[in-house]
Amino acid sequence: MADDAVRAPFDYPDWDVALRSSDGVLFRLHKMILGKASPVFEGMFALPADPAAPGQLQIVDMTEDADTLEHLLRIIYPVPPPTITAVPELVSLLETMKKCQMQDFVTALEQQMMGLLQSDTLQPLRAYTLAYIHKMKRLARAAARRLLLYPHSLEPDSMPPEYIDIPASATWLLVEYRQDCRKVAEAAVDDALWMATRSSGRKPVWISHKGRVMDVSGSWAWVTCSDPAHPASNVDLGRQNSQLLVCDWWKEYNAAAKEALKSCPSGEVVMRSGVLRPAVKKAATCGQCSGKAWEELVDYSQLLAKRIDDVTSLVQIKLPF
């Protein structure tokens, strides 16, 4: 024991038990604190003392390395919490907590795991898998939402190592959540009334209480265009059979946006140049629209993207915990 290194701050002078890591580092601790944190430790300390070493303080050899044990103890003891920057460290700690039956402490890691997810250090599908196993609701929801950004999120290049530990129904929940988000996102694209009266980019179209369109001045280019030679058709405003005449190139943008949302139901996709350009190309043939179509459609796509993110944020994955 004299040759073993002792790691601060876990070198308490009033220690009555020590944990020794697999790489030979000692942590001088307290049975009462460890026992309160883990039923596994509590049961271990309840065993009779070694008759061959009466009165000797107990040293428990652990299979975990020193870094993992330090992370674990920083969760248990009133000291600064662990800082985890690598996924292997995180997984090792979660496995140790599971082995020690410390499920109540797992949520202490959730915020750090959220940070790893946002920085792409922890891939979303693996984050979801770990969150599902350890019943971290907030992380599972954040990972599911982040998966919306990837068109083939459920077809990864390699399977997360922990994936075998979750049921097939956990994957179906992701599929169902994605479908629900796509439905509300597509409905946002189709909402012509929002475009005409509630999108903040231009003056609202004036619609009478009887549903008649009275004034479109100051609205979007595809609404105010009066060129009779340019293709246009009505859209339903969903209010007392109200119809609004709009340029067909805006409808083409909507169709492209909905197609993009099928693979990525996230607001960001409706702002992509590949979604915008075909409609703007059509608008270029109109003398009234050509000079402002690109700028106005970009502005509109940004507002629409925010609206899509707002409505999809209200959709919750149906977790069983």
UniProtKB/TrEMBL annotation:
Which parts of the sequence belong to the BTB domain? 15-77
**Classification via InterPro entries:** BTB/POZ_dom, SKP1/BTB/POZ_sf
Classification via CDD domains: BTB_POZ_ZBTB_KLHL-like
One family name in Pfam for this protein: BTB
Q: What is this protein called?
A: BTB domain-containing protein
Species whose genome carries this gene = Polyporus arcularius HHB13444
Tell me the lineage of the source organism: Eukaryota, Fungi, Dikarya, Basidiomycota, Agaricomycotina
